[in-house]
Amino acid sequence: MCPVRLPRVEDIESRLTGPRTASRLGLWLGAAFGICFLTGIWSHLQQDTPGWLTVPTSPASLYRVTQGLHVATGVATIPLLLAKLWSVFPRLLARPPRGARRLLLHVLERGSIAVLVASAIFMLVSGSLNVVQWYPWEFSFRATHYAVAWVATGSLVLHVAVKLPVIREALAGPEPSSDGLGRRTVVTATLAASVATTVLTVGQSVTPLRRVSVLGVRDGEGPQDLPVNRTAREADAVGPALDPEWRLTVAHAGEERSFGRDDLLALPQAQERLPIACVEGWSRSADWSGVRVRDLLELVGAPSGVDVRVESLQRRGAFATSVLPAQFCADPRTLLALGLNGTTLALDHGYPCRIIAPNRPGVLQTKWVTRLETLA
Amino acid sequence: MSATRWATGAVGLAMIAVGVWSMRGFDADQLVSMVVWLAGGVVAHDLVLAPLTLLVLLLGTRVLPARARPAAVVGLVVWGGVTIATANVLLDVGGRPDNPTLLNRPYVAWWLVLSAAWWTGVAVVAWWTGRRGRALTRGA
Question: Which residues cross the membrane (chain A) (predicted)?
Fold first, then answer.
């Protein structure tokens, strides 16, 4: 009788895992995390701009690029992180060393790795659920994704400091002979997985690829050829937006003027081609028409160089008001849009009027606008 | 330990501190939920995904001839990576009934088509490399 023997895991593990594979994957993973961190911080600064920073209005597509890169890189990182974790998985079962000092160092190292792994997985999972707008948790997505990003990136930097000698040795050492199933196979296959994932999903930001990206969250279609992030119904804006009595109020230093849609259409109209770039990574350019915001502000005697508070009719959800910084108000491309791609602005795109400015996160391109007021 | 390593480590610790400091305004419910999701990811990976991968590899070493294994490993890494990276659209979660511009493709159907095409290609490559290997062995 042939005795049943469990196959030896080490046969395959030793060639597919270990410092060699881990270090090479780590280089790619480090670069990916670096891109995600920097573009994420940039997005955060755009949404919560500190006093010392003046966000530029050009290039108009800057946020489209940075946020598209943020989400695309995050998605492409998922296969990389999984392969990296796999390459070091056997270490999880390593026995702790003897001796109090060594044991303490071992526990500290393991603790820092636990924080790194937990926060890295958290970032990718929370980010990929945010893009499908599923929030099965109690925390605020934006605040937590931001805070844990610092922890994840800090843990990664700490991990590199601890492992530097191992990394140097693994990257510099001679390549052992391989029979075709070794480190190269795993690293190449992982990179192929990242590229495949990118091609299958990135069309939501890279418009020419949208027909190829069959697993992308959005196909780029929508009313007036533009996707919608939050509908009028979700924002509870339908009733007030369709109210025939709707007026736009523009206010500065006690002076107020109010306009109906016909009044706005009677003012000099401008056309601009600008992208909508959502924090969830999707973006698309469109042709907007409407009144330049700076022209409207001039009608109430507002000087250039002032910030403007934009109020929406929406009664539900965040960003019911936004602040349009002075440089965006002064930029002639910033419109109070009344039309989109040649027709009247659709309700879900912000009818009766919305803000559209160059280089702004989508959540700050306030829809269903009812009031513009300068801030002293 | 070199000064560079100490400095790098200090930068890492400072960044972690910034992250923890950013959580100071979170209430208890938020913190508990965050910790559950932090720990949940590790548990899901270490106790489910990694052992499952190990099991698949063990089965592979028993079932597949050695020459077919590189193709099978590449097949698994790419297919598994893409599948998990796109699980957010495959699991039919999220989206909103009033927003037809979000999650508006037949994702599972596409995934089935792509999976079938991919594994067919992997099987062809594995068979071809196996045949070539046998021919080389006979020739030698």
Answer: 25-45, 65-86, 107-131, 143-162
